[in-house]
Amino acid sequence: MNTTARAGRTAALLLSPTFLVLALVVGYPLLAALRESLHRSGDELDESGFIVSGDRFVGLDNYADAVGAARFWTAFANTTVFTLVTVAIEVVLGTAMAVVMHRAMRGRGLVRASILVPWAIPTAVSGLLWRWIFQADGVANTLLGTDLLWTSDGWPAKIAVIVADSWKTAPFVGLLVLAGLQLIPNDVYEAARLDGASAWQQFRRVTLPLVKPALLVAVLFRLLDALRMFDLPFVLVGPQKGAVETLSMLAWNEANQVRYGPAAAYSVILFLYVVVIAFVFVKLLGADLLGERRARRRSEVSA
Amino acid sequence: MTASTASTASAASTALTEDPPRARGRRGRAGRAALTTLTWVVAVLFVFPLVWMVLTSFKQEADAYTDPPRLFFTPTLDQFARVLDRGFLPYLGNSAFVTVLSTLFVLLLGVPAAYALSLAPVRGTSNALGFFLSTKMLPIVAAIIPLYVIAQNVQLLDNVWALVVLYTAMNLPLAIWMMRSFFLEVPKEVIEAGQMDGARLPTLLLRVVLPVVAPGIAATALICVIFSWTEFFYAVNLTSARAGSVPVFLVGFITSEGLYWAQLSAAALLASLPVVIVGWIAQNYLVRGLSMGAVK
Questions:
Q1: Which CATH class is domain B78-292?
Q2: What angle do CA B274, B95, B58 make, to 5 degrees?
Q3: What are the transmembrane regions (chain B) (predicted)?
Q4: CA B130 to chain centre
Q5: Helix or strand or coil: residue A45?
């Protein structure tokens, strides 16, 4: 149809600047990382005892070494666990926050502003704040009556990271869902109330379906960020701690020891992992996420 | 206001109003009270670390360490004075510059892009969305070295513009995805009515579409502001004394002479204050939802 073709042209025109910026700033580093991951740098001795310096092409050796290392699999498991647990907590907390922020009540302005603050503090600082709370003679142990070393290693360190990350990032989900809530007209709720729907029913049947698109976008982007988690465990617990080392931290650690090839290999593996997760997520929830269902409904209305 | 906006309003409310769910019982009141209580408990737990930080920022360093922690003390502004003495303001200026400009660029590039992707059905929409998403998949750790080399080559090391460009690229994907999901909520009739009135694309976007999704745009802008304000990894690797942002200042502070909790709390408080103010302002737009925006 003619209008479709015109819409397509308009779309291409509106999109091209964005494509350009992203391809430049994001595309090049990806290609560079791929290239780097197939090389190894530094001075090494070859078979005949000569010193070889500079980059050497090693094929997939970096990847093979990575997958063969126990440390990699620990980091892989940490990354996965942190992602699943923190995102789940953040969705529940964030949605609850949004509902609270949305409700007309006394002190709403104060509640809204204070809920955003944890997210507004740079991670480097909130990591320290939590390290302080979790230190041996800190507030956490005092309140819980425990004597745990939260920030050294083991499962307390994992919990500390999960608590701090949920605290920090739930407001992000909350804000996105709140924006979705604001788009729901009041008369929808009035109609539901006239029909005698309870608060819970209103939430289940009216609110949740209508904020689902915003919520799913929030979850998707949280997944991507959580899988690449770096600075919070780094500041809160520190590098080279098996309990909290994520794939990003592992890559950083390698790069820090001037092993750029293996670092790039870890990064590319993480990249692929993120790609797979995002792909599965979009495939499973694609209709809601991409708005196909809504687009269909709208065309029915106009037909 | 013109007649077209009035028709827009009615179209908006009819299209979005769905059949209300059938309801059975009503035991709302007790449940609501319980919910409110729970809300406040969670909120208090949530805010506790912040309150603690604020309290500590008004303490002397000696009072910050006591065991058990001291609730009552003589408040002092010394810590804030010390933070300012260490040259906090230039960093604040850099952060403000980078945050405002990158957010502006994100909106300038992102609003048209998101609108284009909401014009269903256009072929390749999901490919484009997938591409934008994919730019958020590479770990920053891997990107930093190539980006450092580029910045060096174009002489943007320790330059605020490097951060402006990077933060724009960093926030664009999320902004596009978010704003697209809001644009999809705009009833087709609204756009068609605008087109019928002969509105051209920029007018259509500014006058017809944006007012309806104002809360969504406000939320997007707020998110971009917060991400830019708190970004650390790019900033610490690509800038130093001249173009450093607030997080760079905060961290420099920590490493130079050990941990001074009261001082750090004061610095963190000062660093997050601008975001709270912006959040407060954005809030006014956040509540101006579809119901109000379309009727007015």
A1: mainly alpha
A2: 45
A3: 33-55, 96-117, 129-149, 161-183, 204-229, 260-282
A4: 22
A5: strand
Chain B: closest CA distance from residue A168 (Å): 9
Please state, in angstroms and rounded to a whole number, the distance separating the CA atoms of residues A230 and A226.
9
Q: Is residue A60 in a domain?
A: no
What are the tens digits of pLDDT across the range B104-160?
A: 999 999 998 888 888 766 667 777 888 888 888 888 888 888 888 888 888 888 999
List the single residue in A30, A113, A185 with the smallest CB-CB distance to B290: A185
Domain total of chain A: 1
Across the interface, whether the CB atoms of A28 and B146 are under 8 A apart is answered yes
Helix (H) or strand (E) holding A40: strand A39-40
Q: How far is CA B209 from CA A67, B111, B217, B220, in A?
A: 50, 10, 11, 15
User: Residue A148 is part of a domain; what is its CATH number?
Assistant: 1.10.3720.10
Per the structure, the complete domain to which residue A189 belongs is given by 72-257
CB contact under 8 A, B279 and A120: yes
> What is the value of ipTM here, to two decimals?
0.82
Phi and psi angles of residue B58, each rounded to the nearest 5 degrees, phi first: -100, 10
Q: Which residues of B touch A21 (CB under 8 A)?
A: 109, 165, 168-169, 172
Tokens 């750790």 correspond to what residue?
B141
Phi-psi region of B123 (alpha: psi -120 to 50; beta: other; left: phi over 0): beta
Locus of tokens 């450092």? B148
Neighboring chain B residues of A247 at a CB cutoff of 8 Å? 139
CB contacts under 8 A, A 85-144 vs B, are 93, 96, 100, 105, 109, 111-125, 128-130, 132-133, 137, 139, 142
- The answer to whether residues A34 and A55 touch, using CB atoms and an 8 Å cutoff, is no
Tokens matching residue A180: 């979705």
Structure tokens at B5: 């906006």
- DSSP element (H, E) containing A57: strand A56-57
For the stretch A175-208, pLDDT in tens is 888 878 877 777 777 888 888 877 778 888 888 8
